User: Which sequence fits this backbone?
């Protein structure tokens, strides 16, 4: 099932792995589409195994959406930096696990699916020494890692900017690379949602800790439907199909499968209203 997607310049390369998903073909004639769906590499949501197979919550949700909506959907991986550029230029019709911001709402209609609490991932030893963001900022030896071009919950932005001005922010191309840098101890902290840490085992590493220093940063993960390339009727069709997958428990079951029951239980998966403009809301990007 070959898949089309954003222009070739947007495709990511991975050693020995093809990042293009198969086109989702249904037995009956497609009622709509094809629509181009942009993924970014993200733990538990979109990953590519050593044999080139794409897997994750968003991959299976795309297949479920194609079946439910009877639309032909084509998915491909896009770098975080170019993800929203692809939507703005018309090279993508849908972006998965999207962060809602005022400037993006002019580009897309958002269909919220999950909620998650933002945490700071640090070593257990460091967690015992720090009581909040101010303590981290006060220790000039500590560095924060972020994904290049990523947006963050508004509550965290002043803290991140203060660290950036002090030269204490390190950037990685995507979340998997960022977590590798953390494990290699090149940085001391990473902003994460717990679901990003699932690696196929419910066993939590004893030397790591999560700190919820921004209780107001409860964020919403949404799929973004392009206002530029998708007519209102098609957006409504896709929106209703996504919400039906949320209502009937499909999203929760997929989260359990790909994130594990321990991490999936941290998500609040329930029908939601679209988040208001300017409120903190995200997936990973």
Assistant:
């Amino acid at each position: 099932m070959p898949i089309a997607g954003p222009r070739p310049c947007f495709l990511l390369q991975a050693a020995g792995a093809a990042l293009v998903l198969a086109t989702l073909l249904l037995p009956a004639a497609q009622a709509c589409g094809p629509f181009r769906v942009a993924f970014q590499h993200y733990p538990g949501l979109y990953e590519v195994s050593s044999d080139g197979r794409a897997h994750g919550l968003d991959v299976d949700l795309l297949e479920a959406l194609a079946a439910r909506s009877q639309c032909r959907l084509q998915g491909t991986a896009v770098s975080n930096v170019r993800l929203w550029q692809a939507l703005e230029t018309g090279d993508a019709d849908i972006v998965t696990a999207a962060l809602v911001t005022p400037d993006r709402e002019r580009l897309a209609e958002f269909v919220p699916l999950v909620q998650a609490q933002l945490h700071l991932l640090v070593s257990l030893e460091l967690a015992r020494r720090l009581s909040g963001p101010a303590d981290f900022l006060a220790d000039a030896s500590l560095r924060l890692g972020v994904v290049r071009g990523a947006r963050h919950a508004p509550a965290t932005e002043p803290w991140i900017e203060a660290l950036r001005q002090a030269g204490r922010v390190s950037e990685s191309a995507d979340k998997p690379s960022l977590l590798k840098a953390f494990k290699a101890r090149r940085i001391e902290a990473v902003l994460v949602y717990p679901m990003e840490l699932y690696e196929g085992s419910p066993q939590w590493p004893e030397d790591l800790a999560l700190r919820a220093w921004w209780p107001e940063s409860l964020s919403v993960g949404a799929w973004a439907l392009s206002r530029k390339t998708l007519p209102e009727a098609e957006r409504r069709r896709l929106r209703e199909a996504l919400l039906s997958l949320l209502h009937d428990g499909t999203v929760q079951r997929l989260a359990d499968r790909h994130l594990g029951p321990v991490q999936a239980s941290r998500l609040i998966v329930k029908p939601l209203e679209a988040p208001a403009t300017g409120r903190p809301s995200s997936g990973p990007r």
Notes: Residues 1-29, 272-284 have pLDDT under 50 and may be disordered. The CA atoms of residues 144 and 169 lie 5 Å apart. The longest helix spans residues 232-247.
